[in-house]
Amino acid sequence: MNKLFYLSPAKFWHQALPLGNGHTGVMVYGGKCTEKLMFNDSNLWSGYPKNHDNPESLEYLDEVRDLIMAGENRLAQDLIEEKLSGDYSDAYLPLAEINIKLIGGNKKNYKRSLDISNSILNIDTANIKREAFASYPAKVFVYKITSKTPISITLNGKSQLKYEINTTDGNFNILGNAPDFAAPHYLKTKKVASYDEGKGMSFCLSSKFVTNGSISTNDKSVLISKATDITIYFATATGFVGFDKMPKTSKKYAFELTQKTLNQLSNNYEQIKQNHIIDYTSIYNKQSIDLKSDIDLPTDKLLKDAKLGKVHNGLIELIYNYGKYLLISSSRNGGSACNLQGIWNKDLKAAWSSNYTVNINTQMNYWGMSQCNMSECAEPFVRLVKEVMYHGKTTAHINYNCDGFTCNHNVDIWRKTAPVKGDSEYMFAPLCGVWLANELYEHLRYGDMEEHRDTIQTITTEAAKFACDWLILRNGQYITCPSTSPEASFLKDGSKTSVDYASAFDLGLIKQLFANYMEFGSDKSLLQKISQRLAKIRPFTCGENGINEWSSDYVMPEKGHRHFSPMYAFYPAKVIGYNRNPQEREWIEKLYNRRIENSSSFIGWSSAWGICLAARLRKHEKVKMIIDKMVKSSFFKNLFDFHPPFFFQIDGNLGFLSAVNEMLVTEEDGVIELLPALPDKLDKGEVKNIRTATGNVISFNWENGVITSLNVQGEIMKLKNLHLQEGLLLENVELI
Length: 736
Known about the structure:
By secondary structure, the chain is of the alpha+beta class. The chain is built from 17 helices and 34 strands. Helix 6 (about 315-330) packs across helix 17 (about 650-665) and helix 10 (about 430-445) packs across helix 12. The two termini are about 35 Å apart.
């Protein structure tokens, strides 16, 4: 399935349909008599470059370590939160809202649809048709109205930020400035945003009208009368000029950028539309899955059936394809990387500031990118991590006296790398930079990221330098201390705490990083350090409930914790192999089962990670169970994934890509296995041009769990001899 469609308009934001070109994001409501368009620009954030590093952190680091090694974990946590913390990150902001009123015309026979095969949105009634798309080549959002009989429209708008309206030359412009600071949603404060310093970047939304009707304006709105054809082109711009540079605060600066974009437009609407379709489909069509479903129901009806226990294969396929659509729409060359909400945010006080949460969420946004053959979406993510590395070197030195670069769990457009304020269980996470480096390096294996190889290897090298210095030798073993496991805690001596040493999460991150560097590294001194540390690094251990999350088998207050961080070494990393390390794999499976069996809610991103782990564990029944629960519980009517109680987070949408991919194709030590965990309900299907971690591009069909055809492009691929139809002819394949 490649189309979301509805027989009623959107009343709320989470029912509206998203469009984006990696720069401008728009939510389209599609009302019968009115239209609401909510705009974002990927570079519109609060604040400006600031120094968040904390020299006091280094003064107390050894004391924290001594307290932990003496068993005083709670005292160490208190000291971390008092002395090793920092400031809040800045926030991704909504730009503006446009409202259009349609006067005249027949509004019956309503239908709205989003065709994700070409990224075109349509809203149809009896004699009025509306069409919208966000063009990457033209860098504009286009909204076209055609009517069989003459109609009129009025257009006005507003912003939640400080703004003014300008209707110069018959166009409509919203100009303003972002705040110096916007509070995170969890901070209890009456002052949501502050403009006191006047340093917030400027922004502008400009429109251009092409119509066969007449145009008139006043100070606040535009009226187009007696028209049968109205095309509106929108462009957005901000005063952002670099992560390490003060933004432009002049509204004229942003206005001139939008005017330049609009003035460069061709007057040929059909050509702009065709260029958009060619560009979009060149990415979207490179890879596909087909679950052989002929279901054709409105999207909200499909979701309703799922909530009643009937999850259609067509809906699974649609959610997968929608993930591809969202990634292409929100991550393109020159724009910003996908944040917590991709590119779409309606709130001044957005959930978790709609920032980059790099203890899982940002990485998960890109897990499926290379598998889905969409390296065109990579540049913003590579640039994000490269810029994080730049700032993280200073944080590593000032906060921790380490070489290389570090990054803690919250990043913004200014590439903040120091800890934020708050609880240590999430705030203190100095190895998040290692995870970012590992995530990028994994993409290199898929064979379509060569243009980024040098940058990724530099990032990996700097992360390895930090990891070498961050490890400390205690009792003959290299450990991390202090050590956390994202957003988790344990009980010790009657109190809850979240800091320890040598968490499984930390060990997995560093072991994977060192393995990555040793594949290409030439720095003899660094290689020697890595070898020394690997020889003595603390091994994983097992307790009553499986692999130990912490240094000891502590009691966990939350049996079904949403984070699978102690299993990082198994997925997404490959430190622990399914076949290579059977004992450690059993430890992983035991803890995994405990988490799944005790999960009280299936949060979208957590469910996606849970499916990935189940697939790598070859547990097809758990794959089916979690997919069904995720589809039943984790999507709004517009298929946006949500985080309880009612927040949109795009990581669940994008993580679903890797979840489905992993149940179809997995890799270990250069050997591919097909259909490792295929649910029985997906009894037949087809995959075209999925990339593998061996650098191959493969296509195959299956029926009743058996591969009936297989095409392998690239070098000879080692393939585990499972699920293959007897007598199947194979080329470029070595059976194992």
